[in-house]
Structure formats: C-alpha cells, structure tokens
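About this split. The held-out portion is used to measure sequence recovery: a designer receives only the structure tokens and must propose an amino acid at every position. Recovery is the fraction of positions where the proposal matches the reference. Here is one held-out target exactly as it appears in the evaluation file.
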C-alpha cells in the first residue's frame, strides 16, 4: 500500500514522502493517527503541485536574499553607530544585533531580521567591525559596522 506522509514518521520518512507500507500498518496506524493519507491519483497530483509551489517560493526567497546581499556588499554600505564613551574610552553598554538591524534600516533603507545578524558577542568597543548576516541558508553577506564616539 502506498501512502503520503503528512508528518515526519520515525524510520519511515519525512513529511511529503511517498512510501510503500503494509496495508495493516498503513490503515491501522498511519492513516488512523493522521500521519499519512492514501496515495491515490488525486493526492499525488496535489502533492506534486504543492512541491512545485514550494520550490518556486524557495527560489524567490533565494533571489531576494541575493539582491539584499548585493545591496549590503556595496562599498558605501557602512552602518555608523554613535555611542556614549565613559572614562578610559569604555563604551556604556554594548551594541546588539537589534541595534545594528535598526540602524541598517534607518541609514541604508535595508530591512534585515535581527536574528539573521550573527554576532559572536555584542560589540563593546569603538572601532570598525565586519558582521556576518545569514540571509538564506546559501547566502551570507558581511556588513561594515563603525562604532564611533557620540
């Protein structure tokens, strides 16, 4: 019996896979527990069209990430963040990924989710930094961040 998995099933396959199982296991466990549905012609056609739509959406996201990467990697794309400096040149507080994302949107008009900015640790000193941004699983850009005295 062929079934289409609706969820990941351990030792059987991932969501969307078409697998061959024994009729008893398919009807009495997988279908009954809404883990799979029978793979008839209509269900297979629906699955193929859904996979095409997902592939098209993934390609659009990849192209969008490449476009943002091109904007970020321009030579003049530098985010300047003014901070208050205390005695001995120490910065009050630290620069977080949220602040970098906000300043990037304000200064360069580029929207990036703060969770995509990959800071090993918050920036705590005046200077220039190269901060990686993971825009897509296959696309990474580096933003130049300049921390200056206010």
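Reference sequence for scoring:
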């Amino acid at each position: 019996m062929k079934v289409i998995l609706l969820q990941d099933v351990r030792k059987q396959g991932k969501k969307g896979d078409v697998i061959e199982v024994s009729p008893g296991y398919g009807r009495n466990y997988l279908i009954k527990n809404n883990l799979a549905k029978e793979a008839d012609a209509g269900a297979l056609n629906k699955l193929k069209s859904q996979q095409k739509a997902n592939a098209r959406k993934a390609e659009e996201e990849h192209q969008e990430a490449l476009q943002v990467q091109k904007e970020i990697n321009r030579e003049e794309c530098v985010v300047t963040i003014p901070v208050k400096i205390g005695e001995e040149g120490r910065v009050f507080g630290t620069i977080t990924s949220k602040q970098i994302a906000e300043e990037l949107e304000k200064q360069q008009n580029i929207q990036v989710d703060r969770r995509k900015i990959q800071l090993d640790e918050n920036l705590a000193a005046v200077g220039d930094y190269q901060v990686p941004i993971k825009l897509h699983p296959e696309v990474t850009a580096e933003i130049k961040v300049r921390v200056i005295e206010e």
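Annotator remark: The longest helix spans residues 41-72.
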